[in-house]
Amino acid sequence: MTADTGSDRTPDLTYDVVVIGGGPVGENVADRAGRTGLTVAIVESELVGGECSYWACMPSKALLRPGAALAAARDVAGVSASADLDAAAVLATRDTFTSDWDDAGQVQWLDGAGIALLRGHGRLVGPKLVEVSPSAASDTFDAPAHLVQARHAVVVATGSVPVLPDVPGLLDAGPWGSREATSAQQVPESLVVLGGGVVACEMATAYADLGASVTLLARSGLLRPFEAFAGEQVGAGLREGGVDVRLGASPTRVTRHDDGSVTVAFTDPQGEHEVTASEVLAATGRVPRTDDVGLDAVGLTDLRRGLPVGDDLLVDGVEGGWLFATGDVTGRVATTHQGKYQGRVAGDVIAARFGSPDASGDSVPAPATPDGRAAADAVAPWSRFAASADHTAQTQVVFTRPQVASVGLTEQAAHDAGLDVRTVSFGLGDVAGGSLMGTHYAGTAQLVVDEARRVVVGATFVGPEAGEMLHAATIAVVGEVPLDRLWHAVPAYPTVSEVWLRLLETYGL
Ligand SMILES: Cc1cc2nc3c(=O)[nH]c(=O)nc-3n(C[C@H](O)[C@H](O)[C@H](O)COP(=O)(O)OP(=O)(O)OC[C@H]3O[C@@H](n4cnc5c(N)ncnc54)[C@H](O)[C@@H]3O)c2cc1C
Ligand SMILES: NC(=O)c1ccc[n+]([C@@H]2O[C@H](COP(=O)([O-])OP(=O)(O)OC[C@H]3O[C@@H](n4cnc5c(N)ncnc54)[C@H](O)[C@@H]3O)[C@@H](O)[C@H]2O)c1
């Protein structure tokens, strides 16, 4: 069903700001943009809360936590943790985290925040004009399309979609994607995982914990964008958990059999092989969701790498400074927390530029370019109107066993950026706090230090619950805290954080 398009049609509805996509990022933009009295509507074609709430972050972590807790308990001498996981109970708990795929709670939150919800598929049909047509997933499927006018700004927060590799037979085999892996109601007896990235490593861990026999086929190494030692330690952890990890393994054909099982043929440095399992999961990456959002209607094409934005989250090359993009669709971040950070920045820029004077007294510099940007030097980096952390301080935690937690630049990325860096590392099991955590507690902490400024520009922690150690490093990187001052941040004894002291001593302090 389509509406007449174009600016000659009278809009059915008008809001100051229209956000296309009600995932975690769109919700954050809407919330912040409304702070100075602007009216805001979110257009959502599926569930308010997006991928993260129902098929990504929350359900996947609910599947992973029981195995991590059990492994930690088993490693403590004197604790009797002989029980296995109760897979049915784990799946049932996961269902509570997704509210049984019902978004009523999030809709209630939107209501409370005064944000209008327009259920349906949003598509730009001209500058500041969004057509909202019924989507198959919405209960208004028979309703007519609406034309919605945005007085000031439209924000695209449509997320990303998975990519299926061009392997003969894979599409016909009806593979699982991350949605099926995070929402499965039964644990398959065996599972082949294609990919060596974050989804592959997390889901291989979860399904091995739940009792499936898992084979992971990674084209190269594991967790490639991270420091190499992270992938190596996660690979060792997966093998210890019973996963058959094959590196350098490229799938060549996938065949679904009449009995429901599936065979994956692959090559690796040793030759040609086959593995047959109950199910196959394609965890081979995602791309920004820029299709069917009407971006061509405002002159934007070739968006395979995402919607290009500046640090103010305004989309490059659109006149008038009204089109913003945030989250996965920008291609510059791929996690919920970094997308929500962008959402806060975009929301603040919109609120300050178009709303009543901000209670905080901050104001965003006036537009100075045709695409509505402030002059290049007018917005201070690290002000709340610039997503500066996108460049040098992105954080991520991979919830494998061991966990991988990182912030900022890897050693290689720092070299590529022309920095003269030195790395120091220390074993997590070699500090008193670590030894108390468990008999086999181990892991690695590494800092990447910019020698010219003597500040930390990157950090990676690999170990049990390493994610909880990350924020100290994030503060050091964002705050550009000199090592000589970090020396005075005294870690409590006996905690694993004492590794900070050991790292600084190793550096030479
Ligand atoms: C298995 C898995 C696990 C993950 N785990 C983590 C994790 O632990 N931590 C983390 O930080 N990140 C994690 N991520 C990444 C995280 O899910 C994404 O970065 C995050 O969801 C991006 O948020 P978003 O709002 O940009 O997009 P999304 O969450 O994808 O939301 C976009 C929303 O827009 C809607 N939409 C799209 N197009 C339209 C349209 N034209 N009209 C109307 N509505 C539209 C969609 O229905 C959706 O609701 C994980 C990803 C996967 C796949
Ligand atoms: N904890 C978290 O923060 C978290 C968890 C899950 C996902 N995510 C995010 O979601 C996004 C998607 O994750 P993902 O794991 O799908 O993507 P990814 O980009 O992390 O990994 C994709 C993997 O698929 C492999 N691959 C790609 N094409 C292939 C082909 N033709 N044949 C064989 N292998 C192929 C790649 O080599 C890589 O190992 C990522 O950006 C990730 O950061 C984050």
Automatic annotation (TrEMBL):
Organism, per UniProt? Luteimicrobium subarcticum
Q: List the disulfide bonds.
A: C52-C57
Instruction: Please state what the protein is called.
Output: Dihydrolipoamide dehydrogenase
Amino-acid positions noted as binding NAD(+) in the UniProt annotation, renumbered to this chain: G195, G196, G197, V198, V199, A200, C201, E202, G285
MF term (GO), any: flavin adenine dinucleotide binding
Q: Which PANTHER family match?
A: MERCURIC REDUCTASE
The Pyridine nucleotide-disulphide oxidoreductase dimerisation domain is annotated at 396-500
Q: Where does FAD bind?
A: K61, G122, T158, G159, S160, D328
Q: How is the cofactor bound?
A: Binds 1 FAD per subunit.
